[in-house]
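User: Can you recover a sequence for this backbone? Please restate the input before giving your answer.

Assistant: Of course. Working from this structure:
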């Protein structure tokens, strides 16, 4: 069935492609955060274990919102590890780093998600896609705040 949202098909496709990169970054960060939640140790164990849990729960909800926006635009959302690996700007982490390194890695991941979201605004603005702009703004606010909190732990 034809989609008539007031956004040209080519614009919807470009936005959906960008959102797919955002989805991949968000899912990769979710997986890293959950892994670190499971494997953190050391003197900051309890506070980091709880902090990481809150972060991965928030990310789990976010991937659904992003994927549903892609679907609302009329395109398939990626949903495999191989697709996410190709699309994500966040590298996988091998092994279990020390707690302070975990914080630094997650900080970089949060900032990467912000950059990916921010990069979509020219496409979204040109298409007058306020729904996607709202989603991006909300995601950026969460990731910028989380980055600030992680950065504060490293000072």
């Amino acid at each position: 069935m034809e989609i008539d949202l007031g956004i040209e098909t080519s614009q919807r496709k470009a936005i959906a492609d960008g959102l797919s990169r955002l989805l991949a970054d968000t899912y990769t960060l979710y997986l890293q955060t959950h892994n670190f939640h499971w494997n953190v140790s050391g003197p900051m164990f309890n506070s980091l274990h709880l902090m990481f849990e809150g972060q991965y729960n928030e990310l789990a909800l976010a991937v659904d919102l992003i994927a549903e926006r892609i679907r609302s635009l009329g395109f398939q959302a990626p949903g495999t590890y191989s697709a996410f690996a190709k699309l994500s700007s966040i590298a996988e982490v091998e092994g279990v780093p020390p707690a302070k390194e975990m914080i630094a890695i997650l900080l970089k991941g949060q900032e990467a998600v912000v950059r990916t979201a921010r990069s979509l605004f020219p496409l979204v603005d040109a298409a007058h896609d306020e729904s996607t702009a709202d989603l991006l703004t909300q995601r950026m606010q969460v990731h910028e705040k989380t980055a600030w909190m992680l950065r504060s732990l490293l000072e």
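That completes the design. The two ends are 54 Å apart (CA to CA).
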